[in-house]
Amino acid sequence: MTHFMEWLYIHYIRPEIQQSDDSEYKEYFSLLTDGLTVDQRDARDRALEFYACNGFLLGLRTGAGLHSLQQREDIL
Q: N or C: which terminus of the chain carries fewer CB neighbours within 10 A?
């Protein structure tokens, strides 16, 4: 993962995820934490980081692709 994505995850994505801990998902997040060893929690956090960043990048690519399609329709 690039340094930018690491920075983005730490300063934007992770706080957004932690904010959702206060929502109706709090119970589900606690199920993912309770009963895990320290190593398992670290593995869960790394997996969450990976999937959150890749989901963010997919959104950027999809948006760019849709924008490109819209520009093509404007030309035609």
A: C
Q: Which residues contact 1 (CB under 8 A, 6 or more apart)?
A: 9, 49, 50, 53
Q: Where are the alpha helices (DSSP H) in 9-37?
A: 14-20, 26-33
Question: Using an 8 Å Cβ cutoff, are 48 and 17 in contact?
Answer: yes
Residue 29, judged by CB atoms within 10 A of its CB (0-12, 13-18, 19+), counts as: middle
pTM over 0.70: no
For residue range 11-20, what is the model confidence (pLDDT) as tens digits?
A: 988 888 777 6
Degrees, nearest 5: CA angle 63-54-37: 150
